[in-house]
Design goal:
heterodimer, A: alpha+beta, Jelly Rolls, globular, B: alpha+beta, mitochondrion (chain A), Blast:Probable complex I intermediate-associated protein 30, mitochondrial (chain A), Galactose-bd-like_sf (chain A), NADH-UbQ_OxRdtase-assoc_prot30 (chain A)
Chain lengths: 295, 420
Amino acid sequence: MYNLLRQGQRLTCWMPAAQQMHTTAVQRTFWEREKKSGYKTKLPEPSKKQLIMDGLRDLKEEIKLWRKEVTEQLESDPILVFRPGETDVVFDFKAPDVLDKWTVTTDADHGEGKSTAALELSAAGAGLFHGEVNSNHTKDGIIKRTGYANIRTKRVRKSFKRESTYDWTQYNMLIMKVRGDGRSYLINLHTEGYFDLMWNDIYHYVLYTRGGPHWQIAKIPFSKFFLSSKGRVQDRQGAIPLNRVTHFGFSVAAKKGMDGPFGLEIDYVGLEYDPSHREEFAYEMYQTPKYIVAT
Amino acid sequence: MLRRAQCLLRMHSSTSRQSLCAAQRVPVALHKHYSADEANRDGKQNPNAKRAGTGGSKSLPAVRNVFATAQDKTKDTYLTMVEIFGERDVHRRNHVEFIYAALKHMPDFGVENDLEVYKALINVMPKGKFIPTNLFQAEFMHYPKQQQCIIDLLEQMEDFGVMPDYEMEAMLLNVFGNKGHPLRKYWRMMYWMPKFKNLSPWPLPNPVPDDTLEIAKLAVERMCTVDLRSQINVFETKELNDAVDETWIVSGMSPEQSKLLREHSRQKALYIEGPFHIWIRNRRINYFTLRADADAEFLAQLDERQLDEDDVSNIEVPFFGRPPPRRHNQLGKLRSVHQQDDGTIFAICATGTSTKDSLLSWIRLLEANGNPSIGEVPVLFRFTSTVPAKSEEIEGPTSVPATSSDSPSRSRKEDEPSVS
């Protein structure tokens, strides 16, 4: 029902075919062709020989991973007690080759803006997400607002490239040790679903940074995160399904004249169970009037 | 009436002399298309555009955007122009184009954060005409252009962080009725915007003051919230005799940092590092830190004291066979918040000129104001600017590489014998 209502949003965009004049691919049905919504870059495919060689090389690693999974299954020794005040680190920037797990994107990737960004190791040994956001953009008459940079983890997966999700249901706090520059950053928790309508489900909250030379530990309850899709906050909200988290990321934007350099140093991102926090969802869940939701 | 006449004079001083004698007739002479003239003006500059168009710029009506051509760009002029448009004729033709043109030129007039102006623009819309009278009209977005126009207006408000009020709801209800899409947008804004407005744990004035000193104070205060006992001092370099730059210095230091500085080894150097930057809303402030390398010995000692709680191989029974308390189990020093893993931070400052000389003055002022031990420790400058030009501007044109430079500029102090 929820999905049907959100489909209604697309209905309003419908126009007679004669009036259409677009420079981009037109969405004629509810169905979306691919997850990138037209932003997929076509990369040249390697030769068949190369593919076979790569596949065989990966196979070794995948079998190793699969063996680990099977042993874990047989051992059957899950963590049952989540002690309060103990942080379980999920993304540790002091671990080796951590930077391969993240993807950096900016508006310049598709020729829509002029922002630059990079994720590197800082002098303190932590991850440094830095660059410059720029709200000037190519004046093509279609793009209205630009100026963002973004980092995101790669999709969590099991062996043999099978997609899986994080299961964070036992925790209720997100802990981050960061050192920022006074800007506010957006924390994105992607809960990508199976159907095309759920491909862009992202839960957001703001990370305010103090700035200055001291490290800062931000503790944010998961109950504060709110749902949005393609940058629009949704009418029908709900607490984040913590067993369906697929990606984690940060965004920064050049909004309200904040064009210029930015720098966010991240030591780790962790999770915690805090028994004193009983809130499930921070926003009202009252019934919205019929035919108003998602229109 | 007088105000309007004056305004019109400013607007039409170059073109129509009629307005001098008859202010009433001028509005009729105002041109009808407000948004098209931007393209037209471009067309004049670009010869290709003339060729490409079927009739060239000749066939286009003579159009002019009052917002683009207005000479006196103030809120008063802006509101007067909106008022003139409203009173020009009964039909208010092209009001959608007028609102779009008005929205586009808001930042030029400096009114993009003003709720009153947005209300004045909504007031241009006729009341009661766009309210759907039956179910089908309500369902299929009655008067879509007009509705989309006001949705875009609300979106612009959202982008600039202007929160609507209840009067705006009443206005929108009068224009579009309670099934209108702008109303839905308004209700969403009124649900979410108050929730996000005061979320920041470091609240800042909106807008932030224009004075750099005030912003620097805000920045240093914000950085010093890490230690509640921090004190912010504003020094003037005039207080010193041999300062070259005359400027201000905002310095933040807490008693705890003073204590750490007192206890700091006289053999280990202090570094002045920077410029780093901090954002205070949309203003950027450069700041410098006085720090030393981390006291590895002390930090290692803290790690040693920590017990592995998961290790169950050797559980101490507290009743018998209890070993005598070892030295590290006795009262020890606690780790201060300023003793970070990558260095101990003693003070933070922002200066008016960000020059080396002003930083030298800062060190002298710190020494004079309760930290005499700085005089006994070597202080090194380490500028780590990623922008070479900026670092050159600060350091002066030297042959030192711009990215990172250690320069012992206070050899005077280093030569002095330590008093201990």
